[in-house]
Amino acid sequence: MDDLTRVRELYGEPHSDPFAKTRVAARLRAGARRRVPWKLGLAALAVATGAVVVAPGMLPAEPGKAPTVLGQPVLLAAAAQAEKAPDGRFWHVKRKFTMRWAKEYGKPGSRYRLESSNIAEIWTDKEGQSWHGSVRLPIRPLDEAAWKENGSPTSWGFPPPDKPTLVKGEGPRTFYVADGKVSLAELEKLPTDPGQLTAWMNERFLANVSRPADGGLPANVTRVEDGTAAALLVSLLYELPVSPEVRATAYRALAGMPHVKIVEGVEDSGTAIEFRLQDSQPTQVRVIIDPETSMVKSYQVTGMPGKGDRMETVLASGWTDEKPAPPTVE
Questions:
Q1: Which of 110, 135, 157, 203 sits at 20 to 30 Å (Cα–Cα) from 187?
Q2: Which pLDDT score, from 0 to 100, does residue 328 have?
Q3: Measured distance CA(294)–CA(86) in Å, rounded
């Protein structure tokens, strides 16, 4: 992979599609055999073949202790908390993306792999104006001893770390929902009934994936699989500037899905929402939430055929009066 390809795979473009993960299900179901455009760069985490993505806190809170499996009441409790979320001038999402590359470097007997990370933030005011912040962090060798045995190199063809930046978006921001563009005004009109919200997302998704765009997806997708329906709802939990009532409705809709598994006791007393993205594929989605606040802590996809696993750690998500600023390194 050349440098330009690596940059695009790892960091993408500032205004790339932030919700392209829903497109994956349709492509697999349609039998497409081409590269899947996962969320990239400033808006998301890049996925590349042979890469394993990790982030802090994916082990159970107490090593050696099996997580406790719970039922739907946990999501209903999170819904109640979501309704209490404060209002603010800006919708703010801050995420850290960390990727551990499968490729090995160094001489035989002292090989090591690399870890790369970047932080991305987006603010959106109630008129739709957006600001995009980003910072690329230094590449880190995972085996420091092996790295030193190879002379402590500092260059591997990756882009170097940069300074935090903040860029103002052009015009009102549009959002990707169910694989299609919507305005902030449309998000404000989303249903607050679980059944109606699920139906709206599913119908929108089917209409969008049937269009002859993005390489020409076949117009033969007539049903939204259970896992895809759950993934569509998850985007409302932390990515999109919806009202507290809509976020709560998304939690209640997930609570009513029998294929969604709830696991307590992960990531420092967090709760995991788990489901298979497709019936015919091993791809698993795991969303860690704090049930006491309803906030999403991380989003992980594993088992994607031909792709690496990926993780995004959510550092902040919600309405705030804090003004846009270049991201800080945490």
A1: 135
A2: 87
A3: 12
